[in-house]
Amino acid sequence: MKEKLSLPTARRVALAAQGFAEPRPSGPIDRRHLNRVIGRLGLLQIDSVSAVVRAHYMPLFSRLGPYATTLLDEAASGKKRRLFEYWAHEASFLPLETWPLMQWRMQRAADNDKSEIYGGLARWAQQNMPLIDAIYAEVASRGPLAASDIEGAKGKGGWWGWSDEKHAFEWLFWAGRITTHSRRGFERLYDLPERVIPKDIFDVPHPKAEDAHRDLLRHSVRALGVATYGDLRDYFRLNPGDMKGRLEELVEEGEIVPVKVESWKQPAWLHTGARMPRKVQARALLAPFDPLVFERSRAERLFDFFYRIEIYTPAEKRQYGYYVLPFLLGDTIVARCDVKADRPAGVLRVLAAYAQAGAPPETAAELLGEFRLMQSWLGLERMEVLPKGDLGPALVKLAGAK
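-> structure tokens emitted (402 positions)
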């Protein structure tokens, strides 16, 4: 018999697994806090959009509150590196311990396996190996090196608008022959992995692909708490063939159990070590690429929250706004807000706010409190709230009554 979970219980399990069932630290945030969150999540998705703050910084703020973003920068570079960059759930920061678990993907990319590398890049690489080898030699002799440091790398049309040199850098990165040493602004500086990844990690024997897939699924189910096949596959973007037999092995080993979640059509699996708190008292603004919501169908199943990012939607066709942050209160997503950090003016601009059906009366006040916390974290001098959206007028009134 499958264990049955009510939907509220499944929500609380998921929130606890993601670190939202614990209060934010009351004192200064240090590397230990950062390591704990990243160890729990298993990855931070990287995104270049900086309408508020780049997406990889937000999950730490959502769970820890205001922290120095230099902590994450330092964890991703330098002698005390804790993270490396690679393709996991899209481009991601990953704990160093995950490096051996990604070698199968790097090898497939090196083999131009289109299941693990963009087809256009694979086809391009097959015809341009001399240039790829030349770029590799440049990094080996001159690294750390940015793609823009090579003549022509700024792009001249073609696939994705990349130059041939940029294609070569990206292929080498996919194949694991180069990796991110650090960043210059948001631009990657590449170097050889053996000069970036600590020796005690780099020298770890590479597991077989099926063993790596099983370990990645272990990370996924711990990070999600309770999840469907699709949720688990999506977390590290595993292919269906890579999943075959792996969940059954984890069931047999007693690490997960099959469950039926109320209102979910798909079967689900529960991590046997998952916490089941009776109450979750979270309050957090979420990045569009936060692991809690980056799989949109899961967000809809857990929170009845239909969410699509509208960055690429023409302004006149947007329903909620350009860069919309979900707002988690308690164990429910109760609102969404279009937000912009206007750094030149020193202003956090709340452009619109919309309540979800059934949002509690305290939603506006709690949301305003979180905005003030964000304003402080981003070092902005003031906040401006527009009355757009059904929650906007209440926010304006509360903001004016400070």
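The first helix runs from residue 7 to 17.
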